[in-house]
Amino acid sequence: MTARATTGRFITLEGVDGAGKSTHVAFLADTIGARGKRVVATREPGGTPFGESLRELLLRTPMTHDTETLLMFAARREHVEQVIAPALARGDWVLCDRFTDATFAYQGGGRGADIGLLDALETGVQRGLEPDLTLLLDAPLEVGRRRIAARALDHFEREQTPFFERVRRAYLDRARRDPKRIKVIDAAGTLEQVQAAIIRELDAVLASFGK
Questions:
Q1: Which CATH class name applies to 10-208?
Q2: d(Cα 148, Cα 135) in Å, to the nearest integer?
Q3: Which of 11, 198, 204 is nearest to 101 (CA)?
Q4: Looking at the whole model, is its pTM more than 0.85?
Q5: Which of 31, 61, 108, 130 has the greatest number of C-beta atoms within 10 Å?
Q6: Are 199 and 126 in contact (CB under 8 A)?
Q7: 110-165 tens-digit pLDDT
């Protein structure tokens, strides 16, 4: 079991490519900081020098689906050990752009990886660690594709629509099965509407943990 502090909290942002996670991670980090919390903002795959090296491989290099899955969890184990668990033990709040829900959505839903394997890897790598709150930014696929159309696309972003349909379904299925942790945010609205919804969920989690 990964040690948890009573004051440090772990929040993750999830969603298909183009949902706006990067924009809202920065906003959420600023908002949490303004509420007097120390914030560690990080991302997956990545978050450590080792993880960032694997990120480049994962985003740029074709590989088998099993290898992709194993590398995701290898990067995650270093991330938990070197960044996330120590920050929580200090009482910091950790804000992560993607975590294990993304692996179940992309490698499980999108690639068809064995869910039993993902469950076993999650247990072995995280050792009881789970986000306190996950914000799932959800939008119709055409919205996300339009938002990323102008940028250079990585290995995942170049996938076709059926892949992203499976990813989105997998995300929403996890949200239905864990509604206490995973809160679905309508990411198709204006920036102000999405950020207002994020603040509502943040305030709710702050209240539940006694600020």
A1: alpha beta
A2: 20
A3: 11
A4: yes
A5: 108
A6: no
A7: 999 999 999 999 999 999 999 999 999 998 877 756 655 555 455 565 677 888 89
